[in-house]
Amino acid sequence: MTISAHKQELDWTQRYTNFLDNEESRPARIVYQRDRARVIHSAAFRRLQAKTQIFGLNESDFYRTRLTHSMEVAQIGSGLVEQLITVGEGKAYMDWLPSFYLIEAICLAHDLGHPPYGHGGEVALNYMMRQHGGFEGNAQTLRILSRLGEYTPKNGIDLSRRATLGVLKYPAIYDEVVATSSDYQARIKQEDAFDFRTLDMSRWYPPKASVYQEEREQFEWVLGLFSDKDKALFTQLVSNESHFQHDFHKTQYKAFDTTIMELADDIAYGIHDLEDAVAMGMVLRDLWQAEVMESEVFKRYALWGDEMTTMLFSSRSKDRKHAISKMVGIMVESIFVDVNEIFEHPLLRYQAKLGEAEMAVLELLKKFVYVHVITLPEVKGMEYKGQLIVLDLFKSLRANPEALLPRNTYEKHQRAESERAQQRVISDYIAGMTNTYASRLYEKFFTASQGSIFDRL
Known about the structure:
This protein is an all-alpha fold. The chain has a domain of 119 residues. Helix content is 58%, strand content 3%. The chain has 25 helices and four strands. The longest helix has 24 residues. This is Deoxyguanosinetriphosphate triphosphohydrolase-like protein.
């Protein structure tokens, strides 16, 4: 590493608490290892073991949760970095390649803000918070890292500046993104639906934004080492007409570490989640053959032969696991680093990418999983049930905070300086619930035959 890169690396190891207290940064080898440890030992990370990935938690202990998904993303992220080291001798990006500790911290943290019941819970919370700053899973992740986590009194888990930058998938503030949609602005003024069962939840998907207004100061600190030009480009909002039914604008660019994390996340989603679907019998061999192996995309980019299909749909789980491992390996070994010349700073200039063929096939697999797993009526039905639980819990807690909120949460609610801040306290409480906790609390509140003051939720 050059002297200049080493000095800048120390700037990136700074924590927000160090910044506020005017303390010097510590060496990267210490800081990034502790970043990873702080995530692993956080309550938010442990709760991911009882939050939905795709299938219900009671289906089997084989299928993935958000915790096992995050661990797989971290493992793939390390594999991507290792591959870039293998092919990177003498290349300029090597000075800025994240360490294994750093990329694992980013990957393990990327879903911390994931609420109960997956994206269904996210949409439900966004609906209930639509007039009070909204809800978005990535923004909730930053809120946990910078405010809610348990490692500091006021600054959350307090990761290093670079690790925090790495989890910012959409470097924009929620309020500013929703302001770009006149249609959405008109609808957020509506009163709550009298009956949530009549609500069209597809109209309340949140925008892609990784920052709430409440965390603006931390966001600006993270970007503080970039030039004004780089910051303007990095946070610029552009038209995005394809985002569901809304015309929200969105950011175009991601930091170097984020591009590695996102590739790892996409590989885990497109391939590991496929394994769950095959194991559960939701995807059969004929469907795979017709829509993947015989698709125009795969005919153009044939990354494997029929032997992969035979292994994937074998009656032996070891064969299926071997096929999944080979698919992941093919993706990982194609990674390379591109340069985006419009940026000045290396952490924005360098961009991790997969080869053309591998990226095309990965997108094919992601679409296949989405169409034949994520949007199945059985899966969407469970998501809908979770949405109703979140909506009813929020409505009741909002109406009766003193009676229904836990004492420490109610104290935060009382100290809140505005209605928006009060609603954020309730949102934080529900977002931190596991699927199991939320369903038990719902039964305790609303099921006549359930509930006792001695129940442990």
